[in-house]
Amino acid sequence: MGEKEFVAYQGEYYTIEWYFDPKGLCQSLEYYAAMSNSQKRKLLMLFKRMGDFGKITDQTKYRNESDGIYAFKPQPDRFLSFFTSDKKIIVTEGFVKKSNKLPRNIKDRSLRIKNEYLERVKEGSYYE
Protein backbone atom coordinates (compact mmCIF):
# COMPACT_ATOMS: atom_id res chain seq x y z
CA MET A 1 0.00 0.00 0.00
CA GLY A 2 3.03 2.29 0.30
CA GLU A 3 2.81 5.40 2.46
CA LYS A 4 0.29 5.18 5.31
CA GLU A 5 -2.71 7.40 4.73
CA PHE A 6 -4.10 7.81 8.22
CA VAL A 7 -6.78 10.43 7.58
CA ALA A 8 -10.10 9.17 6.23
CA TYR A 9 -11.85 12.54 6.77
CA GLN A 10 -10.74 15.87 8.22
CA GLY A 11 -13.69 17.73 9.72
CA GLU A 12 -14.27 20.85 11.77
CA TYR A 13 -15.00 18.83 14.94
CA TYR A 14 -13.12 15.57 14.44
CA THR A 15 -10.44 14.02 12.29
CA ILE A 16 -11.36 10.45 11.40
CA GLU A 17 -8.39 8.14 10.88
CA TRP A 18 -7.80 4.55 9.83
CA TYR A 19 -5.91 2.45 12.39
CA PHE A 20 -2.62 0.85 11.28
CA ASP A 21 -1.13 -2.08 13.21
CA PRO A 22 2.62 -2.24 14.00
CA LYS A 23 3.26 -4.01 10.67
CA GLY A 24 1.59 -1.17 8.76
CA LEU A 25 -1.56 -3.15 7.96
CA CYS A 26 -4.99 -1.55 8.10
CA GLN A 27 -7.91 -4.00 8.16
CA SER A 28 -10.58 -1.27 8.09
CA LEU A 29 -9.05 0.50 5.07
CA GLU A 30 -8.64 -2.81 3.21
CA TYR A 31 -12.29 -3.63 3.95
CA TYR A 32 -13.34 -0.16 2.78
CA ALA A 33 -11.29 -0.49 -0.44
CA ALA A 34 -13.18 -3.70 -1.31
CA MET A 35 -16.63 -2.13 -0.84
CA SER A 36 -18.85 -0.98 -3.71
CA ASN A 37 -18.82 2.73 -4.56
CA SER A 38 -22.34 3.18 -3.18
CA GLN A 39 -21.32 1.57 0.15
CA LYS A 40 -18.19 3.75 0.26
CA ARG A 41 -20.38 6.84 -0.24
CA LYS A 42 -22.64 5.81 2.65
CA LEU A 43 -19.64 5.48 4.99
CA LEU A 44 -18.02 8.71 3.82
CA MET A 45 -21.29 10.59 4.39
CA LEU A 46 -21.28 9.31 8.00
CA PHE A 47 -17.61 10.30 8.42
CA LYS A 48 -18.41 13.75 7.02
CA ARG A 49 -21.40 14.25 9.33
CA MET A 50 -19.45 13.19 12.41
CA GLY A 51 -16.32 15.10 11.42
CA ASP A 52 -18.14 18.34 10.58
CA PHE A 53 -20.92 18.38 13.18
CA GLY A 54 -19.45 16.31 16.03
CA LYS A 55 -22.37 13.93 16.41
CA ILE A 56 -24.78 11.60 14.65
CA THR A 57 -28.03 11.28 16.58
CA ASP A 58 -29.56 8.53 14.42
CA GLN A 59 -28.71 5.23 16.18
CA THR A 60 -29.36 3.31 12.97
CA LYS A 61 -26.31 5.13 11.51
CA TYR A 62 -24.00 5.49 14.53
CA ARG A 63 -24.10 3.84 17.92
CA ASN A 64 -22.28 3.64 21.24
CA GLU A 65 -21.38 -0.04 21.66
CA SER A 66 -20.16 0.61 25.27
CA ASP A 67 -16.63 0.39 26.70
CA GLY A 68 -15.60 3.39 24.58
CA ILE A 69 -16.26 1.59 21.28
CA TYR A 70 -18.60 3.14 18.69
CA ALA A 71 -19.94 1.83 15.38
CA PHE A 72 -20.47 3.67 12.10
CA LYS A 73 -23.31 1.74 10.47
CA PRO A 74 -23.58 2.06 6.69
CA GLN A 75 -25.95 -0.93 6.33
CA PRO A 76 -25.07 -3.82 6.17
CA ASP A 77 -21.48 -2.90 7.07
CA ARG A 78 -20.08 -1.83 10.43
CA PHE A 79 -16.95 0.16 11.20
CA LEU A 80 -15.88 0.13 14.84
CA SER A 81 -14.03 3.12 16.25
CA PHE A 82 -13.01 5.01 19.37
CA PHE A 83 -12.41 8.65 20.32
CA THR A 84 -9.05 10.08 21.41
CA SER A 85 -8.43 13.09 23.65
CA ASP A 86 -7.09 15.11 20.69
CA LYS A 87 -10.39 15.15 18.75
CA LYS A 88 -9.67 12.12 16.60
CA ILE A 89 -11.83 9.11 15.89
CA ILE A 90 -9.79 6.02 15.10
CA VAL A 91 -11.52 3.42 12.89
CA THR A 92 -10.37 -0.02 14.01
CA GLU A 93 -12.11 -2.43 11.67
CA GLY A 94 -14.83 -3.03 9.15
CA PHE A 95 -17.09 -6.04 8.75
CA VAL A 96 -20.51 -7.15 7.54
CA LYS A 97 -23.07 -7.30 10.30
CA LYS A 98 -24.60 -10.78 10.38
CA SER A 99 -26.64 -10.72 13.60
CA ASN A 100 -28.47 -8.27 15.84
CA LYS A 101 -25.73 -8.30 18.45
CA LEU A 102 -22.18 -7.08 17.98
CA PRO A 103 -19.95 -10.19 18.15
CA ARG A 104 -17.95 -10.12 21.41
CA ASN A 105 -14.71 -11.18 19.70
CA ILE A 106 -14.89 -8.22 17.29
CA LYS A 107 -15.55 -5.76 20.10
CA ASP A 108 -12.74 -7.29 22.18
CA ARG A 109 -10.37 -6.90 19.23
CA SER A 110 -11.33 -3.22 18.94
CA LEU A 111 -10.65 -2.72 22.66
CA ARG A 112 -7.21 -4.35 22.27
CA ILE A 113 -6.51 -2.11 19.27
CA LYS A 114 -7.56 0.96 21.26
CA ASN A 115 -5.15 0.09 24.08
CA GLU A 116 -2.35 -0.69 21.61
CA TYR A 117 -2.94 2.60 19.77
CA LEU A 118 -2.84 4.64 23.00
CA GLU A 119 0.35 2.87 24.12
CA ARG A 120 2.07 3.39 20.73
CA VAL A 121 1.06 7.09 20.67
CA LYS A 122 2.37 7.53 24.24
CA GLU A 123 5.74 6.00 23.36
CA GLY A 124 5.88 8.01 20.12
CA SER A 125 5.92 5.07 17.72
CA TYR A 126 2.50 5.34 16.08
CA TYR A 127 2.89 8.43 13.87
CA GLU A 128 6.38 7.88 12.52
Walk me through the structure:
- The protein is α+β, with helices and mostly antiparallel strands and 128 residues long.
- It has one domain (7-122): YaeB-like fold (2-Layer Sandwich).
- It contains three helices and six strands; from the N terminus they run ββααββββα.
- A six-stranded mixed beta sheet has the order 1-2-6-5-4-3.
- Strand 5 (77-83) and strand 6 form a beta hairpin.
- The longest helix has 19 residues, at 104-122.
- It is globular and about 35 Å long.
- It starts with 6 loop residues before the first strand and ends in a 6-residue tail after the last helix.
- 29% of the residues are buried.
- The model has no long low-confidence stretch (mean pLDDT 94).
Produce a short descriptive summary.
With 128 residues, this protein is α+β, with helices and mostly antiparallel strands. Helix content is 34%, strand content 23%. The protein has a single domain, classed as RelE-like (YaeB-like fold, 2-Layer Sandwich), CATH 3.30.2310.20.
